[in-house]
Structure to design on (209 residues):
C-alpha cells in the first residue's frame, strides 16, 4: 500500500519523460499530499496531446470527482459556452487543474460535499503534475482560470484582479489569466461577470490567431 510522500510533493510519483496516458496512470496512485485520502479518485487532465491551448483550473469539483473528468460540472458547462462564443473549440483544448484531487468539507448533516479551496502547500505538492502536462503538451498558450491556477503558474504574488486578460510569460509559456467560471456562477451580476470572462477569452482567441 502506497504511503504519502515524506517530501510533501508529487514529484516522486511523476514518471520522467512519460506521455499523457502514462502520466494519467501514474497520477491515479499519487500520494504526494493527503488529499487523496478523501477524494473518490484522481482527476487528471484531458484533451489532445498536441493542443495549442491549455486551460488550468483550481481543482476538480464534486461532479468531476465522481466522474473522473475535469470541467464536467456546472462551471464546466459555462466554460463550454464561453469557449464556443469566443470561437475556441473545446475539443482542441487540454483541460486540467492545479490540484488533482477534490478538497471538500461536509455540510451540517454530513451529506453534501462543499468545495474547500486548497492551501498553498497542497498546490505546491501537486504542481509537478501540471509541469509534466505542460512539458508534454507544449501549448502555444496557457489560460489560468482563477487565482489558484494563476499562482501555481505565475507565482504566489500574482493577482488576477489586477492583471487578468494580459499576456504574461512564465516557465517558457505564454500565459493569460482570467477568473474561474465558478466565480461567474456565484457573481451578484452574473451577466456582467460573464461578459468580462468572455472578453478575456476573446483576447485568448486573438493571441492564438
Amino acid at each position: 500500500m502506497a504511503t504519502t510522500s515524506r517530501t510533501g510533493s508529487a514529484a516522486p510519483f511523476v514518471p520522467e519523460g512519460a506521455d499523457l496516458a502514462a502520466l494519467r496512470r501514474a497520477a491515479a496512485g499519487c500520494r504526494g499530499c493527503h488529499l487523496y485520502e478523501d477524494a473518490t479518485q484522481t482527476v487528471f487532465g484531458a484533451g489532445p496531446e498536441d493542443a495549442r491551448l491549455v486551460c488550468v483550473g483550481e481543482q476538480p469539483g464534486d461532479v468531476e470527482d465522481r466522474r473522473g473528468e475535469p470541467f464536467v460540472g456546472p462551471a464546466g458547462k459555462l466554460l463550454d459556452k464561453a469557449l464556443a462564443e469566443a470561437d475556441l473549440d473545446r475539443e482542441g483544448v487540454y483541460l486540467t487543474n492545479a490540484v488533482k484531487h477534490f478538497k471538500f468539507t461536509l455540510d451540517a448533516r454530513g451529506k453534501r460535499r462543499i468545495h474547500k479551496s486548497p492551501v498553498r502547500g497542497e498546490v505546491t505538492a501537486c504542481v509537478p503534475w501540471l509541469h509534466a502536462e505542460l512539458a508534454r503538451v507544449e501549448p502555444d498558450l496557457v489560460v489560468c482560470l482563477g487565482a489558484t491556477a494563476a499562482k501555481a503558474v505565475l507565482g504566489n504574488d500574482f493577482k488576477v484582479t489586477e492583471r487578468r486578460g494580459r499576456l504574461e510569460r512564465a516557465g517558457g509559456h505564454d500565459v493569460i489569466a482570467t477568473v474561474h467560471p465558478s466565480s461567474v456562477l456565484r457573481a451578484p451580476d452574473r451577466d456582467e461577470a460573464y461578459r468580462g470572462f468572455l472578453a478575456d477569452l476573446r483576447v485568448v482567441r486573438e493571441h492564438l490567431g
Notes: Strands lie at 53-57, 93-97, 104-106, 113-115, 141-145, 167-170, 173-178. The chain has a mean pLDDT of 96.
